[in-house]
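1st attempt posting a full record on here, be nice pls
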Amino acid sequence: MRLRTGNRRRARCSAALVACAALAACTDRVGDRFSAQSVVSTERFGDDDRLRAVASPGVVAVVDDTRVDIRLSAPFGSASLDNGSTSEASVTFAVSNVRPDWTWRATASALPDDARRDPLCSDADYAQRATVQLAEPSPTTTGTTRVELELVAPPCARIVVVAEPPRDSAELTFVVLPPLSGDTVALVRALDAAVAHGAAFVHASGDSRLRPDDAPFSYLDAAAAARSLPVVIGLAPPDVERSGAALLEYTGPTTWRGALGRVPYLVIDTASRRLSDGQVSWLRAIPTNQVHGVALTATSPVSFGTTVGLRSQLQGLELVAALADRGFSDVIVGGAARPDVRTFGATRVIDLGRASSTARVAVVTVLNPWPDVDPCSSATDCDAGSCVEGLCRVRCETDSACAPGVCAPGGVCAPACDAATDCGGSDCTGGACAVEPRVTVTTVEF
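the predicted structure (as tokens):
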């Protein structure tokens, strides 16, 4: 077994992160952080580098040819194993920053041509079903936010494992923390508030390095793990003033998109108070969401009250418009002298302030996160019926077309109801259950 030290990974990351003579000169370059994301999220290993581990999003560190440590940056993120050889590969993914009660879904497919390291892989179709076992959580310093996945990758195949909340959940809640500015007492209060609200995870909106003498964010991670809370770490201007690019090796990607059930979830690194060209291109490529989503940024797109926005007000307004066009109706930020909320067109910007006597946390709840219908982009995605607002629905004119359901306003079939309790977490309107997920955002003192 060939062991890997951390030296190779550090050298590889440093080469990508340092785009100038010294790292200190690059600390406030959002473009460097964005372009370096894939470096910390991917690593090759095994004989002739025929295996590849990828976290989406997250940080990958190969321990040896049979074990990989992965810290997922996002709730319900994914990890993949590419086996570019004609022999079966068994690898343990030790995944941290997750909850043990989350479920894991695995899929396998043939490798794309550019990932096949063995020429023989192109001679056969090796798409087979992957085998995945979820081991008991390991007793580590990350508390109960760590699991181990035993993966057996067929030859010339890709295994993708995805973390999911329980599918029978009627609602899914997470809590956004304001910038903590070194206040460990505020952190404890905020995390306890998250537990009280039944949060599945917390999002730290930035300035969360509470103990400068410790490893980056280790105090935050340990405090959250003690409460079985995975944590999404955002960067704020004070972070990038110190060593923003280097922090990627701990936080993983700081600009990414994911999903909370069927609800889109977007994180944009605006800690440098501007967007890089790469981020702008990435944002433009995001399709329009029919279901309203939630976006989180370090800095507000635009300035208002005591809230400081991007350096370019024009770029900030363009960001607001781009988010609105893609269905992101709420943007949550932190850092103002006091909490504030403003609405710009179809987008509401919520500033939590920063840790103080007036600070607030945002409680975000997704109702009906797993609607009992399939998502779609066109009617061809639906076995029967039509694609209506991103979901496969059956068109109707009368209740008889929907038995045992009813024909809801808008001419689509829906489950019948007398009250919201009949709808498993969604609303009951006009005797019909709402099928699409619904997001609520409230701010509370802690």
